[in-house]
Amino acid sequence: MKVSVLQENLAKALGIVSRAVPSRLTMQVLGNVKLETEEGRLKLSATNLELGITAWIGAKIEEDGAITVPARTFADLVNNLSPERVDLELNVRTQTLHVHCGATNSNIKGIDAAEFPPIPEAGDDPGIAVPGDVLREMITQTVFAAATDDNRPILTGIYTRIDGDSLTMAAADGYRLSVRTASLDLGAPKPAELVIPARTMSELARIISDDDEEVLISIPPGRNQVIFHLKSVDVASSLLDGKFPDYNVIIPKSFTTSTVAYTADLLRACKRAEIFARDANNNAKVIVVPGDGPSTPGRVRLAATSLERGDADAIVDATVDGDSQEISFNVRYLIDVLSVIREEQVLLESSGANAPGVIRPVGRDDFIHVIAPMNPLGR
Asked: Which terminus of the chain is less hemmed in, N or C, by CB atoms within 10 Å?
């Protein structure tokens, strides 16, 4: 293999694929990134056997070939090279990659590419097209609600349903639920339900750039895998086994109070309350009070107390329709959902201290978040 690439492009591609390199190695080769020539480009791949990421960059190829080299060593070296042409030459006999850039010459010992596990490819499957910015937002508005422990492994993933021209994503951890829907320009030929690991989706959201006008989702039949094809990157992932709970039964159908507030104001109030709520399992009181008349606005009060450090009490103007409410919520959960709502105003619907609250952006019906109340002593 004898290849020349730009340092900037190589560094960017390494930053992307290295996200799939495991921190704990079950096989030495999994700590490596695979480099190979393919149709006039340099192909970089990494995998942890559950998540695989492949990226392609433009290259001048004099000789074809392939090698795997330690991902961290190679990335550290490339990131510290000068921003110019990088020449890569493989000594097949010693499985050593010679790296030349400007006045720098380095040699990295590798492992034969034949020992690297194969990463799934979409093949001839045309995939289901989703606008890149829409998919990125759908992930952002759901992934934070996925469980982070393995008590119920199915909840560590994002439930994804493709049905006709509708795409739905949902995540839940037992205390909160996020559901986001979107319409597809071209419907899927047949319905599909899958649960994709939240880590895969987090990495995918980071990788999707403004240049990725659309992402193709492929579900190879009988392989329990999903593949996301971007402009110059593929992300392949195993799926989680099991049935995702019916989240529709969790969503309240009626409310006694509806409150509209400015998203930014409510988010700032939550962040101030969180400073003191940390000492009480993030428990903060949300007190909703209707206005006294047409000329007097309602309000939302955020109150949190730390026995050791003090307390916070913030009031936000709001339009309140219904009864007064006092509910304890995990304020960290409120911050999480308010941080992913771009709309100027947010709607909070509630039915008392023991009922879950529902949060939606005002003016949109494609996103809903359900959050369970806390008891005074925490969970």
From this structure: C
In this structure, the number of other CB atoms found within 10 A of the CB of residue 76 comes to 11
| Integer Cα distance of 126 and 196 in angstroms | 20
Tokens read off for 109: 């010992």
Note whether 261 and 346 are within 8 A (CB).
yes
Structure tokens at 91: 């000594």
Per residue in 7-65, pLDDT (tens digit) is: 999 999 999 999 999 988 889 999 999 999 999 999 999 999 999 999 999 999 999 99
Backbone angles phi, psi at 133, to 5 degrees: -70, -35
DSSP tally for the chain: helices H, then strands E: 6, 25
The full DSSP string for 330-349 is: EHHHHHHHHTT--SSEEEEE
Please give the class, per CATH, of domain 252-371: alpha beta
Can you list the alpha helix ranges (DSSP code H) found in 67-187?
71-79, 132-140
What is the CATH T-level fold of the domain 128-248, as seen in this structure?
DNA Polymerase III; Chain A, domain 2 (3.10.150)
Q: From residue 46, how far is each of 5, 101, 215 by CA, in Å?
A: 19, 24, 20
